[in-house]
Design a protein that fits this description.
Elements: H1 3-20, H2 27-40, H3 46-55, H4 57-76, H5 78-90, H6 94-112, H7 114-131, H8 138-150, H9 160-165, H10 174-206, H11 220-241, H12 247-265, H13 270-275, H14 280-296, H15 299-313, H16 315-333, H17 335-349, H18 353-365, H19 375-386, H20 393-421
Helix pairs in contact: 1-2, 1-14, 2-14, 3-14, 4-7, 4-11, 4-12, 5-6, 5-7, 6-7, 6-8, 6-10, 7-8, 7-19, 8-10, 8-19, 10-18, 10-20, 11-12, 14-17, 15-16, 15-17, 16-17, 16-18, 16-20, 17-18, 18-20
């Protein structure tokens, strides 16, 4: 067996393991196992492993900061307070509660990133469904999974994958970003809302939230956790404006807020640390190593050639074709590693601006098809398990097919028409 064939087979089996989780083992086990097999068999060397792990450094810091903030806010009761507030404003209407949660999801995704929506908003939504005395919380929890990706290209900071794709100084100015992505983002958010509502409408009609509930008292620690989340959003926007990496600022904001609240309450950090889903970090590292190995097979060079040919031969259809293919392929390897490959590919191919934009939309929105498409969805699954809930890959795929495909196709059409007109 050739080295390249070994890399492709092991990578494919590892991703399959992440998707179906044989024996119920965590996703991280299969990603790390695949990377370890490639190293032990000599398919890749220690240098490739170190390079792959190193490329995820900013993501690790970002996730640690966000997960600390989320666990702190959950333990201090911030989510319970927000849940009671949302349920009261819903006024007994399931549609109003659904719409309200969706609107909040847009704001969290745009200003704190899609991963934050999965980590921070999911437990808040679950708390809201409990406060509303709903027996089936899943229709509302699905919002967190789908809006996390649908709104993830409104701003550069809305998805860490955006920073990966446009790394190395290639990030367009904010004005140019909005010019390219404002209309496709609006389409993605609107179509995702409509399609998701159509999927869950019967479940929403089956039970109504209570009209009045008692709002719990907001503790000092919960208030400080809320300030920490707001400060983190401001820091992320500022860091993005200055072209800075987001990992370290998020890590400092998360750890600083956590230490401050624990010190004021004279609490041990152990419960908070135990509540963090640390398994996400080796999962991300393993996926980055697999992509580093795939890049060694000449994947980037091959894709760059295909992208150049498509852009030259069929410029009008390339936007739709490239975006759709990218969106589907992203579900096979996860959007962050795919973003690394996509970024290297569009830079090597020197792709036109609208082709690069189509690739990014595919990377960001395409993952709404499957549970492994984006890190945000994997984090969402981890948040569900913390609450004793679960959703299988097949069940998610059936919903994702109905929701993602129309949103992706129409968003790419908006990009093609807008860029052609411009």
């Amino acid at each position: 067996m050739t080295t390249n064939l070994c890399i492709w087979i092991v990578s494919a089996l590892s991703v399959l393991g992440v998707i179906i989780r044989p024996r119920g083992w965590p996703e991280a086990v299969w990603a790390v196992l695949g990377a370890a097999i490639l190293l032990v068999t000599g398919a890749i060397g220690l240098a490739e492993v170190q390079a792959g792990i190193g490329k995820g450094q900013d993501v690790y810091f970002f996730l640690i900061g966000m997960m600390l903030l989320s666990e702190l806010a959950r333990r201090e009761g911030l989510f319970d307070w927000l849940a009671a507030l949302a349920t009261a404003r819903a006024g007994g209407s399931s549609l109003r509660l659904f719409t309200l949660i969706y609107a909040v999801g847009i704001l969290v995704t745009v200003f704190l990133s899609n991963d934050a929506t999965a980590v921070v908003l999911t437990p808040a939504v679950y708390a809201a469904t409990k406060a509303a005395r709903l027996r089936n919380p899943l229709p509302y929890l699905l919002i967190c999974a789908f809006i996390a990706n649908a709104a993830s290209f409104v701003l550069p900071i809305s998805n860490p994958a955006n920073l990966v794709i446009f790394g190395g100084g290639a990030m367009p100015p904010l004005g140019k970003w909005m010019e390219n992505f404002a209309l496709p983002s609006l389409v993605a958010i609107s179509v995702t809302f409509l399609c998701l509502f159509l999927v869950v409408r019967r479940d929403l009609q089956a039970e109504q939230p209570v009209r009045e509930i008692e709002t719990p008292q907001l503790a000092r620690g919960a208030r400080l956790a809320g300030y920490g989340l707001a400060l983190t959003a401001i820091i992320l926007v500022a860091a993005s404006a200055f072209g800075m990496d987001l990992g370290i600022p998020t890590f400092l904001a998360g750890t600083g807020t956590t230490l401050l609240v624990l010190a004021m309450n004279r609490q041990s950090p152990v419960p908070v640390l135990k509540g963090v889903s640390w398994g996400v970090l080796p999962l991300v590292a393993g996926l980055f190593v697999l992509v580093e190995a795939l890049d060694r097979t000449g994947l980037t060079t091959m894709l760059a050639g295909l992208l150049r040919d498509a852009s030259a031969d069929h410029p009008s259809g390339a936007v739709m074709g490239v975006g759709l293919v990218t969106g589907l392929v992203t579900n096979l390897v996860n959007n962050l590693p795919a973003g690394l490959v996509a970024g290297a590919t569009v830079q090597a191919a020197q792709s036109p601006e609208r082709i690069s934009a189509a690739v990014l939309i595919g990377i960001d929105l395409g993952p709404n098809l499957s549970v492994t498409g984006s890190l945000a969805t994997i984090l969402w699954l981890a948040a569900l398990r913390r609450e004793g809930l679960s959703m299988g890959g097949w069940a998610f795929l059936k919903v994702g097919t109905v929701v993602m495909l129309p949103a992706l196709l129409l968003s790419l059409a908006a990009l093609a028409l807008f860029s052609a007109g411009g």
